[in-house]
Amino acid sequence: MIQEMIDLAIGKFPKLAKAYEQKRGQGFAATSVYTQSVAVETGDVISVVELTMAGPAGESILLTYSYSKGVLDILLERDLPGVQQKYDSNLLLSGRDIQDKEFKRKLVRGYDPSDVDAFLDVIFKDYSYIEKVLIKENKILKDDIEKLRRK
To answer: pTM for the full model?
Structure first.
């Protein structure tokens, strides 16, 4: 399924296809793909493809390709934090901390373990979204702002 989505995404953009094949040649494999196209006021359509890839040594990268006919044709590559790293130093827990949390069981009274586990699963999904999407997007935007300020 993911390969079909990648094939669709890179089939439209030769620059992204070239970078993708180059990374595959280095032992990287795609782990997720995100695409979005947005119509802007000028009538142009801006397309963005974000391709996350895992390397042979456990490293992860994000290929971000932005395209708009005659306006944008930008390919950026960023290193992503490892699984064990926290995405933001202000976070006390990682998604893995939440997922791996075990509670002591009491014989009398206490919470139903299945309810606690089900609730933690929901928290883990939300927290994972924050880590994998929102914090990365925030960092990318901050990096882009800093690059623009330096120009």
So the answer is: 0.53
Paired tokens of 44: 């142009």
Q: What is the DSSP string of 19-57?
A: HHHHHHHTT-EEEEEEEEEEE-TTS-EEEEEEEEEE-TT
Q: 123: which residues sit within 8 A by CB, 6+ positions away?
A: 98
Q: What are phi and psi of 70, to 5 degrees?
A: 75, -5
Whole-Å CA distances, 73 to 64, 65, 66: 11, 7, 6
User: Distance between CA 36 and CA 42 in Å, rounded?
Assistant: 18
Taking only the tens place, the pLDDT of each residue in 55-88 is 888 888 888 888 888 777 888 888 876 544 555 5
Burial of 91 (0-12, 13-18, 19+ CB in 10 A): middle
> How far is Cα 19 from Cα 77, in angstroms, rounded to an integer?
9
Beta bridge pairs of residue 33: 51
CB 108 within 8 A of CB 52: no
Answer for the pair 94, 130: CB distance below 8 angstroms, yes or no.
no
Q: Please state whether 36 falls in left (phi above 0), alpha (psi between -120 and 50) or beta.
A: beta
